[in-house]
């Protein structure tokens, strides 16, 4: 299992990265915006992540047309060894296939249906990112849909990177079904590395030590 930090806020990333349990960082335009960043800030953010020692960074293309996405992908790839995220639109699928043929590492993102995952596998993409919580919000069973994806595609060559997770329980259920990778927003990432019950147990240990040093 590999865990990723779904963020662009440097203070948050630094806090979580120090735990040593995360494999990399994922971003998208919405995440950048939440951190008060835009596309012009991506090169500096990527350089900072590299200096921090983050080995795997996912950066997302912008644009609606094939040409716009390809131009964006060229800019991202020029930064260094990144995984390029491409949305699962008709134009995005075309771009993803071309990038793979050109040797890029590509993840299909904003995935809401198992058929999209099958297309990603058939294109030979490295990964596919289903939005678990957003699927459920839209009236679909996010957990069950992702489990169906996992059963359908396996892990070679395409690995599922589950996104839009709402709780650590989501991770447990999906991992038990074989889903290999997860990207976590701030609240879920913190819950994973700092469980309330574990903290309470540590407080009890320390209180006992203070009573009888």
Layout of helices and strands, plus pairs?
Elements: E1 2-6, H1 10-17, E2 22-26, H2 29-34, H3 42-52, E3 57-60, H4 66-77, E4 83-87, H5 90-101, E5 105-111, H6 114-122, E6 127-130, H7 132-137, H8 142-153, E7 159-162, H9 168-176, E8 181-184, H10 186-193, H11 196-211
Parallel strand pairs: 1-2, 1-8, 2-3, 3-4, 4-5, 5-6, 6-7, 7-8
Helix pairs in contact: 4-5, 6-8
Task: Quickly describe the structure.
Helix 4 (66-77) links the parallel strand 3 (57-60) and strand 4. The chain has an eight-stranded parallel beta barrel with strand order 1-2-3-4-5-6-7-8, surrounded by eight helices.
Q: What is the subunit organization of this protein? A: single chain
Q: What structural category do the secondary elements indicate?
A: alpha/beta
Average pLDDT reading: 95
DSSP summary: helix tally: 11
Share in helix: 40-55%
SSE string: EHEHHEHEHEHEHHEHEHH
Tell me the Rg in angstroms. Answer: 18 Å
N→C terminal distance: 39 Å
Low-confidence stretches: none
**Largest sheet report:** 8 strands, parallel, barrel
How many strand units?
A: 8
Can you describe what's shown?
By secondary structure, the protein is an alpha/beta fold. The protein is 51% helix and 18% strand. The protein contains 11 helices and 8 strands. It has helices at 10-17, 29-34, 42-52, 66-77, 90-101, 114-122, 132-137, 142-153, 168-176, 186-193, 196-211; strands at 2-6, 22-26, 57-60, 83-87, 105-111, 127-130, 159-162, 181-184. Strands 1-2-3-4-5-6-7-8 form an 8-stranded parallel β-barrel, surrounded by 8 helices. Helix 6 (114-122) runs parallel beside helix 8 (142-153).
